[in-house]
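Write out this protein's structure.
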Amino acid sequence: MQITGVERADIPSIKTSKKDRENQDLRVIDERVKTIVETIKQEGESAVFQYIKELDQAELDSLFVSEEEIGRAFQSVSDEMVNILEEAKDNIESYHRLQKEQSWYEHQKQGIWLGQQVTPIERVGVYVPGGKAAYPSTVLMNILPAKVAGVKDIVVTTPAGQDGSVNPMTIVAARIAGATQILKVGGAHGIATLAYGTENLKPVDKITGPGNAYVARAKKYVFGDVGIDMIAGPSEVCILADDTANPEYVAADLLAQAEHDELASAILVTTSHEIAIQTQLEVDRQLEERKRKQILQQSIQHQSAIYVVSDLDVGFELINELAPEHLELMVENPFERLGSVQNAGAIFLGDYSPEPLGDYWAGPNHTLPTNGTAKFSSPLGVYDFMKKASVIYYDREALSQVEQNIQRFAEEEGLDGHAASIRKRFE
């Protein structure tokens, strides 16, 4: 990790001067995604089975995880892990209940009622990455806000292995969280299956959940026919540290995020050159102890950096420009500086609130805006699974008091039909 001094004047160019993440040829991916999605849209379930055979090398009799498979999954997962999932579920549900909005109505003038009706989306699809790894935390973080919102049907889809099985941890987490169905379909073909359905599966109204480039581009392609949560990029953490920070903790947290993949970004912004040097040494030392050493080396070497700033005010300016997915404030009295943060997906305060606490346990959602989109986006939440409708009621007397103004407005816009709609009621 290179140590770079940063002045206030450097901040506007930091983001563009930061090493670019590896660019994949999205045009090639997009063409492949288009073919997959359109084929499934036109041909339905037969095309889904064909893509599972071609892309996942799996022969399936059914797209759905059966009750028998769910039972076997619970038998294979330890009681300890089931209890951990249940407790994490309680934490996540408790936090997300506070986000739930209610319908409201007001009656400020005689004969007029105005309001907003809030209702849950009816049917949601959740994509969960598969392969050799299981991501039960992703299952919980996507299903539980939907359940709190009141979504009736939640369909999980995840890739099957070559033997046709789904990771038992994914199955157990999905059942604990309250999924309605679990599909054995991954990749772009999984997204297409959720979006357009098959002869035996009703399409969903919105799709959430992370995935590889094919999944992300497929979500972008089907957007408009269904809703999506976000187009997430590689994961990232930014730590703001002063001279009270512990370099050992800082290095551990940088590496925790960098181990996601080679494109993950881990950045330290500090007011202390000594902390910068000590953290750099700690990163090198701790990296040798980690299992995902090859991934870490690529992420740390190509996607990560240490910036030394003159004071915390400059540090916060840099942070707000980067708008990181995860932000850790390892500074003295972090609560006093919380108001200085304008752009971040999730904020972790102090030495004992490391990012993995948010990934698995605390309750706030770990599906967060990446790549600077925290400037205009929020974490996944209950609000993503609800929709709002405006409610308007005027009686005849109330409408009569404003009918001339409305007609004048409509005529100014050249919409005489609008004016007539009002006028007819008083002729």
